[in-house]
Amino acid sequence: MPGERVLPDFPWDTLAPFAATARNHPNGIVDLSVGAPVDPTPALIREALAAASDAPGYPQTYGTPALREAVAAWFARRRGVTDVDPDGVLPTIGSKELVAWLPTLLGLGAGDLVVHPEIAYPSYDVGARLAGATPLPADGTAQVGPASRAVKLIWLNSPSNPTGRVLGWEHLAKVVTWARSIGAVVASDECYAELGWDGQDAASILDPRVTGGSHEGLLAVYSLSKQSNLAGYRAAFVAGDPVLVRRLLEVRKHAGMMVPWPVQEALRVALGNDAHVVAQKARYRARRELAWAALEHAGFSIDHSQAGLYLWATRGEPCWDTMAWLADRGVLVAPGTFYGAAAARHVRVALTATDERIEALGERLLKD
Ligand SMILES: Cc1ncc(COP(=O)(O)O)c(C=O)c1O
Questions:
Q1: Ligand 1 mean position, distance from CA 26 (Å)
Q2: Which of the pair, 115 or 146, is modelled with greater confidence?
Q3: Where would I find the beta strands (DSSP E) of 123-262?
Q4: For residue 96, which atom of ligand 1 is closest to its CA?
Q5: How far, in Å, from the CA of 169 to the mean position of ligand 1?
Q6: Mind giving me the DSSP string for 11-52?
Q7: Over 80: is that where the pLDDT of 41 sits?
Q8: Considering the entire predicted model, what is its pTM?
Q9: pLDDT (tens digit, 9 = 90+) per residue, 172-194?
Q10: Contact 221, 238 (CB under 8 A)
């Protein structure tokens, strides 16, 4: 197995001592280390899953036409993108698998570069390595320099996990122009796009202001795990250039990478309903305001964090010192080093905890 040689160690085990300390708190641990939703899956989505549970045959790898049309309609209604071609839509088994396998599905290999943000969700790096390609953390063309000839794939992630930073459409447009000039694909991981906090949701890579009217070479990657409390369903999709999507489809058909039909139905119904996203967002907004105030009171600064489910926080010290300080108060977060060397003085505070646990955070940090 080639991956055994090239993959980084799975870092979460290193949190065990901090988790043990935090669990000793008399009122229990406040675990804000992972971004896994905790609120119930909305009833209408569960009903859609149940109604599709009679599924004796194989599902379509491509997704049903109704699902692909629902994705195109969602882009038009929620993202300001009216020209998504349903032929350029493909459901994925959650988005992490697509992130981890996209370089392989695109046929990348030795000598190819996969650019991803410097401070990033680790699966972009993993995906490059799985393909035998080389990951290159870079946020600008200057960092890539003459190596740009070898760049075959550029990952963007806006809003960002972990920083919550949102890239403006002008920035996205510049990346698209550059990528097209060097013949690279741009894949934009946008799963927090409906979770913007300052009234302005993040632009898609497929936004007409970004694309110049053509989706050629562009893929938007999206997931309902977060906004619809659906992480356990593995419900996501990729959309954009129909030619690229066909290439992915061909390999995925051979490899059996298909989304179960009941999940396709749940995804279709979820995409057609905005009310549950609005309700979930209100829950997160309240948690975010409380957590933000508590962290600031305790001397943290919060950077970026304009969107998404994390506060990107620092006490101006190495992140492991902050981890220890919080663990002593019964709180577990994720250290910035998980997301890149440039993030060694930040911690990522997830808002995916119950109201009760976020209130416990507030009590612990506001009382000093
Ligand atoms: C930026 C980003 N991309 C992809 C994923 C994967 O989401 P899923 O596999 O649940 O669709 C996550 C999950 O945390 C994420 O933060």
A1: 33
A2: 115
A3: 134-137, 151-157, 185-189, 218-223, 235-240
A4: 9
A5: 22
A6: GGGGGHHHHHHHHTSTT--EE-SS----SPPPHHHHHHHHHT
A7: yes
A8: 0.97
A9: 999 999 999 999 999 999 999 99
A10: yes
pLDDT per position as a tens digit, 117-140: 999 999 999 999 999 999 999 999
* 330/221 Cα distance (integer angstroms): 35
State the distance from the centre of ligand 1 to the C-alpha of 221, rounded, in angstroms.
Answer: 10
- Under the banding of pLDDT at 50, 70 and 90, the label for residue 5 is low
Condensed to tens digits (0 to 9), the pLDDT of residues 47-79 reads 999 999 999 999 999 999 999 999 999 999 999
Task: Report percent pLDDT > 90 for the chain.
Answer: 92
Q: DSSP per residue over 93-144, as a string?
A: ESSHHHHHHHHHHTT--TT-EEEE-SS--THHHHHHHHTT-EEEE-SSHHHH
Between CA 120 and CA 306 the distance in angstroms is 16
Q: How many angstroms separate the alpha carbon of residue 101 from the centre of ligand 1?
A: 13
The minimum-distance atom of ligand 1 relative to the CA of 92 is: 11
137 forms beta bridges with 116
Strands 301-303 and 310-314: antiparallel
Look at the alpha carbons of 313, 324, 13, 31 in this order and tell me if their dihedral is positive or negative: negative
Nearest ligand 1 atom to alpha carbon 160? 1
Radius of gyration of the chain (CA): 20
Beta carbons within 8 Å of 10's beta carbon, 6+ residues apart: none
pLDDT score at 11? 85
Structure tokens at 10: 């799975």
